[in-house]
């Protein structure tokens, strides 16, 4: 009502910083982005940013943690192949185009900064895997997967192809390529793998 | 015979630079390593290094290209599961421990530097995939895999789990974890994936 509202002003500053970080990362790339540049674009002081975060990697993680909710959505239509095609495609979209994707920059930066990597696991990866596991349990309940399914194998096989292609710049998979991979992974999980030879 | 031999001296300097790069990368990490530090340790001038390479990433790639031959060896005992367990383990060993592995640093740096990434593909990834494809063809000839096997799917599924765990610091797979994944992948490739529903 005309009185200053520091809480709301602070919230506006936070939002401006996070949005400016995404914009700058996309425009200039993570390496060229600076805290100074973010502050200038957001109309706040560097001190304000450093009050909340200790590095540009941490600001970017915070900016993406909200948006990455999209990729942590696991559709459950009762058709595991279709749902995992849609889910893995949403991850590919987050990472595309690789050259300017803020999420791809965050993944790369995490490999150079163990503290940031730990924060990424806590904020993004662990909640993602928890929702993934829920979707797999639902597939077991629907008898689309055996109860003995190895969830660690499942997450590595569904998402491994994306990150294998990402780290070597081999081109992220398109829809048909993802579908072929998802169909192979579902077959693998149903089979439980080729059997070990009998002992002795 | 007592006369100076510039070719041999130059070769010794090259070797000293490449070995110093691996040592420094392992000791200090890629981020803290400098061309100046490499020159000092190798007993050459910075100018000598810049005559051959344009960045510390390029020096590291050259230093690893020789050693990575080890991981590009594809045993062919006639037992695909056993051979791929050994092969993927040799890749895990190159990347271990992740915090100080020069190869893991190179993979991370490639994601920030498109020119280095292209050089990594030419020097390391393309020859690796060519040998991988040969091993898969041999498995087809031995009727361990169907002739219709999709080699792009195969390479993504065999190596994806390693790189998925690498990029998120989830801990590289140990021997039993690799074997479980390899057994799943071989089952997937034999099945060709769960079938698409008939059109119409």
Describe how the helices and strands are arranged.
The structure is a homodimer of 200-residue chains.
Chain A: H1 6-28, H2 35-42, H3 46-52, H4 56-67, H5 80-94, H6 102-110, H7 114-141, H8 151-167, H9 175-191
Keywords:
transcription cis-regulatory region binding (chains A, B), elongated, TetR/AcrR family transcriptional regulator (chains A, B), 68% helix, mainly alpha, Arc Repressor Mutant, subunit A, TetR_C (chains A, B)
User: What is the CATH superfamily of the largest domain in chain A?
Assistant: Tetracycline Repressor, domain 2
User: Over all CA atoms, what is the radius of gyration of chain A?
Assistant: 20 Å
Number of strands of chain A: 0
- Principal-axis shape of chain A: elongated
What is the first-to-last residue Cα distance of chain A?
Answer: 82 Å
Category from helices, strands and their pairing of chain A: mainly alpha
List the chains of the largest interface with their residue counts: A-B, 52 and 52 residues
Give a verbal description of the structure:
2 copies of one chain form a homodimer. Chain A is mainly α and 200 residues long. Chain A has 2 domains: 6-52, Homeodomain-like (Arc Repressor Mutant, subunit A); 80-191, Tetracycline Repressor, domain 2. Helix content of chain A is 68%, strand content 0%. The longest helix of chain A is centred in the middle third of the chain and has 28 residues, at 114-141. Chain A is elongated and about 70 Å long. At the A-B interface, helix 6, helix 7, helix 8 and helix 9 of A face helix 6, helix 7, helix 8 and helix 9 of B.
